[in-house]
Amino acid sequence: MEQFYWVRRRWRQLISGRGLYSAPASQPTKSSPELHNTERLPGKRRTVVARHGSHQHEYHNISKGYHGNRIRTTKYSLLTFIPMNLFQQFHRTANLYFLFLVMLNWVPVVEAFQKEITMIPLVVVLIVIAIKDALEDYRRYRFDQKINNNIASVYSGKHQTYVDQHWQEVRVGDFVRLSCNEIIPADMLLLYSSDPHGVCYIETANLDGETNLKQREVVRDLPQQCSELTPENFHGRIECENPNNDLSRFRGYVEHPSKVRVGLHNNNLLLRSCTVRNTETVIGIVVYAGHETKAMMNNSGPRYKRSKLERRLNVDVLWSVVLLVIMCLTTAIGHGLWLSNLKEAPFLITDSVSPALAGFYLFWTMIIVLQVLIPISLYVSVEVVKLGQIFFIQNDKDFYNENLDSRIQCRALNITEDLGQIQYLFSDKTGTLTENKMVFRRCTIAGVDLKCNTMNQTSRRLEVYEQEDEAMGRSQTLKSRTSAKSLSCKSLSCNRSSLSLQTLTGYPEEEQEPPSPTLHQQSPFSSPMEKHVAPDRLLVQKLNCLSSPLFLLRDASMELTYIVDFFMALAICNTVVVSSPNQPRHTSIGANSMHPMLPILKSLDEIKMLFQRFGLPRFSALSPPHNTGSPRSFTRKYFTRRKLGSWKGIEDNMVPLNVGDMSRLEISNGEQGSAGEPGADELIYEAESPDEAALVHAARAYGCTLRGRSVEHLLVELPGMGSLAVRLLHILPFDSTRKRMSVVVRHPLTNQVVVYTKGADSVIMDLAESPKSAERSDSMQGHIRKQTQKHLDDYAREGLRTLCIAKKVLEEEEYEVWLKHQVFAETSIENREELLMESALRLETNITLLGATGIVDRLQEEVPETIEALQKAGVKVWVLTGDKQETAINIACACRLLRSTDHLLTANCGSKVDVILLFYITSSPFKFQRGDATDVTSGFAMVVDGCTLDFALQDDLKDNFLELSQHCRAVICCRSTPLQKSQVVRLVRDKLRVMTLAIGDGANDVSMIQVADVGVGISGQEGMQAVMSSDFAISRFKHLRKLLLVHGHWCYSRLANMILYFFYKNVMYVNLLFWYQFFCGFSGNVMTNSWVLIFFNLLFTSAPPLLYGILDKDVSADTLMKLPELYKSGQNSKAYLPSTFWLTMLDALYQSLVCFFIPYFALNGSDADLLSFGSPINASALLIILLHQVIESHSLTWLHAVVLVGSALFYFSFTLVFSMVCVTCSPPSNPLGVDKLQMSEMHFYGVCALTTVLALIPRLLFHALHNTISPSNTLKAAMMDQFNPEDYCKRMQRWNQTQAQTNVKSLITVEHSDIMIPNCDFRLPEELKEFGTPSSPVLS
User: Fold this and answer.
1) Which of 194, 237, 198 is nearest to 216 (CA)?
2) Rounded Cα distance, 258 and 685, in Å
3) What is an annotated GO biological process for this record, any one (predicted)?
4) In sequence order, what are the residues at sequence separation of 6 or more whose Cβ sits closer than 8 angstroms to the Cβ of residue 545?
5) Does 692 appear as a known binding residue?
6) What is the DSSP letter of 416?
7) pLDDT by residue (tens digit) across 218-237?
8) Euclidean distance between CA atoms 976 and 1007, whole angstroms
9) What is the C-alpha to C-alpha distance for residues 350 and 374, in angstroms, rounded to an integer?
């Protein structure tokens, strides 16, 4: 596959006119001018020169358009706040609509109210939102000022020294000097580090949440490489890419006056907001400043999505508009007909206006009168309700994680109700379902699965860790299908338990102040359980043979070579940063760092001869060294600053090391090299992933210890040899396409160039080919591959994560040819990633398989219970993982995603024809099923590998894949890439039109989290990338259960009922005004004063819906957790269906008829005036609306009583005071004394009481009949909450039995049978004949 990729890439280059690459004849260095001048790249790039130096005269022309370092995240200033805020608010359609009404009311011929009155609703909404925006912007302003006024040491050309300046004064081209623990003010190119190896360590927690240190390197081949940089002497010109938001990429080069170019990469860039650690002084030149820095370009603010309920709300608002137009047209037509039928027009109507024109004018007048029908305050109320819901979610103590001191984060503010409608859940495995705390358990080397002889010791340690676990919370260990006896014979004895998740940067409790950066800290992936490895005795004895001159058997020597190379690869094939408790992390080497049990070594000559004699035929000799010295002097001489290509000098300075007797190396109880207390020999490994940490700790347990790391060298301690210097030539980092990483080193004993590779077994096993130099090696490699594959399958069945280890020895000529391509790729700006990929693929071929590792990653606590509850709730759970198929199945069984009675469909297809045949075969058994597909086929589960998934996601097979997956209770996609994860989520979301939720914890899950309707990130062991891209962030997978089943159910039901209630009260009150038009000649007049009309929805009835949407509780949290089936009501949108909306409208119509005509008939024939007629109508409408909410509420508290009674008292108080003091407040009518007189008569209260009862009786009868004849599951559950504990338990058991019997009737249990293809009816489809026969079995 790699060869095909390379050929395709070269062919594209050839046909595009770029031509084939022709490397220089001689081996170049990374600063070779011949190499760099081979490419002049077009396109827009950034040129950076020093602000003070030889290029000062052209600095202003070059950097004229570059941003300064001052940041401004505020939207407004004092001068622009009012116009810009109004401009942004009027982007909302509702605000524009009401602005149109205000302007319309200023037209004399259609004026309905006083001009000022119609402005009140819009002004109130605008002021409230403006105050909120102003407070938020002021907080941003204070934060900006704090950041901009930070101090940095910047070089001043005037003073010829570094001076303190504010961050906002820094410019592109400035030289900035930073000390340890200082925050980087801008994106800088690292030009100097006080570290003798030219490295700098930064902490990126402020950027991506990762607390482990990252290593950055000084730009290579600078003139002042060994001394502090002098800005005046820097004459280079920097060419780099334009500002972008890619945190993992930086491309460019430095061009010196001699036209020599030095390539730049991401490890040369110090990013803004990161913190310098463990480095005394660094100096860099600013290349991006202010809003052009990568940190600021990634600062997109909070996430905003449109929820499903909000989309439904917008549709119903449009229906309200249609209803408004119909009512206004009816009134306009009625007014025109009324005028045309009048023989003598009233004096208020001018004769010059025709009935048609008068009807047209009245249409717009009624738009103003009935404006309340369009709920302008509904959108504001929905935002307030969602903020209240988020407040209660964030303050739920069940979401609090004591170990991390963290709680749930709600990053998306407007999709809380979507949590109650999830139908599909897509989950990552590692770190999401599991702890992501890796423990080295087993390994196979040279085809030999190592046996365990220390199970008793490990069991004792397991008991200790389990006791510590119980204090922090129970969790579940993965159950192996292999018996304990077989495990004790086949696996390395390692602790399989783990502590609960620890604080990533925690300090000891007794410390009152944070320790200095050089002191010991709790680093990621370094819990006692993760560090503890109990070595295999037999393997230790074999390693001890390195120091024995009697061990000369040829067969054994080959095995020993494999063992040494295997653990060498575990120790150095990584990017681990090494530190010690009391030393900086890059210099943790000294006399005390040697293993205290190791004797002094004999001589390096004997070790050389040993490896020559024991090694593979391709090993070569190393010329003997000439110097001697102690291990400390060796470390001091070796780890000194040297340029690339100076191996000869290092070889001359290497000291001889003595070989001692390793027979005394015994397996202790953890005092050495395990998870013991901090001591003289303790090392701290800062790893980027838990896998790396577990492998390095495992190598150390066997005596192969990584003790130091610099840019170009590693210090490794081997059993019987002491510390050896390993020259690090290249690191080919891991990526999701290659699924592996490699390091190229010069072997310390053979002086050969060796490539060590580790990666996914599916990739490494394909790349591992037999050497062609020896038949014996060929047959041995074949045997090793066969045995290793067998052991990998065993590991996967036990639920272990597997990695393969391999090596490749390069001839010098082969390495030189590859180096030309690699250097060319590293120094390219355009297409650098593709060129580096090609170079890596070219190197990682014909590798020699050394062995494989098995790492255990246990489940988080309560994961099985959570998945089981979600499945009962009707949520289909898919697991998308990059692990092996067997591992994924084992984990799925352990977390109860798969059941023992499930019929498993495994799809492993090697070609598209296989996939087509798979879908054709599996479609037949389902076509003849009857009944609901979900219930009938609930015993089926499907497992798809990455290759099959790649074919299934093609356009012509998507529908078939979805059809098959819909018949499966669970789907597991293994060996899937991040791109495939997002494609699967998008396919299900768009094609099935269902609500999807994606949950993950790492950067590889970001794409699917962003694609899903709801994205949930877990703040785990792999940084905060997933959290920063998510809508909600939790610390454990178990929290998803309550988040969906309880808060999701509540948020959806509360908000849906509140929206329906809002539409109800608006339609009900507007209809009162509409009915009056039939009695006033459709003149647009109203029977109440305009102030009460405007304030009725704005003030008098606005608070109760907010309380209803925030505090209503139909079922208790405990019941929702125990009965996950109640969640299905939200999935089916039962609370807010189109039918529910129209029934609510009909109810509002009925209540408005009762509310209008009861007072009308009660006052008919009396001398009551217009306002006296409207007073009981308004009062009755208020009581009906408030009591309607009481009927609909599922829970009533004292807060409800206060708000409801307070709203009623507020109305009566306002109208009473208004009628007593207002004389000309509502011309031409005069409300003086009207309401005071009405409220003093018993007739008024009788009419209000009768109207209220008659209006609400149908609603009460409907609820009584419906709840008696066909009660919902939610109502049944709510009734159980009212029983005493004993009755509650009995009814709960009865409920579960009833549900189980219902489910059993609809299940098809397939135990041992396979899907059979009927021979008589089966024919190969026509579309398959053109492809030929399948290449492999497609269904098992």
Assistant:
1) 198
2) 41
3) phospholipid translocation
4) 551, 556, 560
5) yes
6) G
7) 888 776 666 677 888 888 88
8) 13
9) 32
Owner of token pair 């940095």: 152
The answer to whether the annotation marks 428 as part of a ligand binding site is yes
Annotation-wise, does 1001 bind a ligand? yes
Please answer whether residues 253 and 262 qualify as being in contact, where contact means their C-beta atoms are separated by less than 8 angstroms: yes
What is the Cα–Cα distance from 1193 to 1189, expressed in whole angstroms? Answer: 6
DSSP 481: S
Is 881 labeled as ligand-binding? yes
* Cis status, amide bond into 1228, omega within 30 of 0: yes
pLDDT > 90? residue 426: yes
Q: Note whether 893 and 796 are within 8 A (CB).
A: no
Structure tokens at 425: 């859940």
What integer is the mean pLDDT of 707-735? Answer: 85
- Please give the Cα distance from 355 to 362 (Å, whole number): 10
Which tens digits make up the pLDDT trace of 1271-1309? 888 888 777 766 656 665 666 666 666 655 544 333 333
- Report which of residues 861 and 633 the model is more confident about: 861
Would you call 428 a catalytic residue per the annotation? yes
Q: pTM surpassing 0.85?
A: no
Give the integer Cα–Cα distance in Å for 690 and 431. 10
Report DSSP letters for 54-82, one per residue: TTHHHHHHHSTT---S-----S--TTTHH
Tokens of 1100: 């008098």
* Encoded tokens for 120: 């009140």
1005 is in an annotated binding site: yes
Reported as a single tens digit per residue, the pLDDT across 1039-1070 is 999 999 999 999 999 999 999 999 999 999 99
Roughly what angle, to the nearest 10 degrees, separates helices 115-148 and 93-105? 140
User: 477: annotated binding-site residue?
Assistant: no
Q: How far apart are CA 1113 and CA 1193, in angstroms?
A: 8
Which amino acid appears at position 340 of this protein? S
Phi, psi (degrees; rounded to nearest 5) at 929: -80, 150
Half-sphere exposure of 331 (CA within 13 A, CB side): 29
Catalytic residue among 195, 418, 428, 536: 428
- 1321-1335 per-residue burial string, b: 16 or more CB within 10 A, e: under 16: eeeeeeebeeeeebe
**pLDDT(553) > 50:** no
**C-beta atoms surrounding 768 within 10 Å:** 23
Whether 975 has a binding-site annotation, put simply, is yes
Show contacts of 333-341: CB within 8 Å, 24+ apart. Answer: 333/359, 334/1077, 334/1078, 334/1082, 335/359, 335/362, 335/1081, 335/1082, 335/1083, 335/1084, 336/362, 338/1081, 338/1082, 339/1081
Burial of 26 per CB tally in 10 Å (0-12, 13-18, 19+): exposed
Is 430 assigned to a binding site? yes
> Is the Cβ–Cβ distance between 741 and 803 less than 8 Å?
no
Nearest to 366 by CA among 1097, 1087, 1086, 1098: 1086
SS3 of residue 716 by DSSP: strand
794 is in an annotated binding site: no
Rounded to an integer, what distance in angstroms lies between the CA atom of residue 201 and that of residue 211? 12
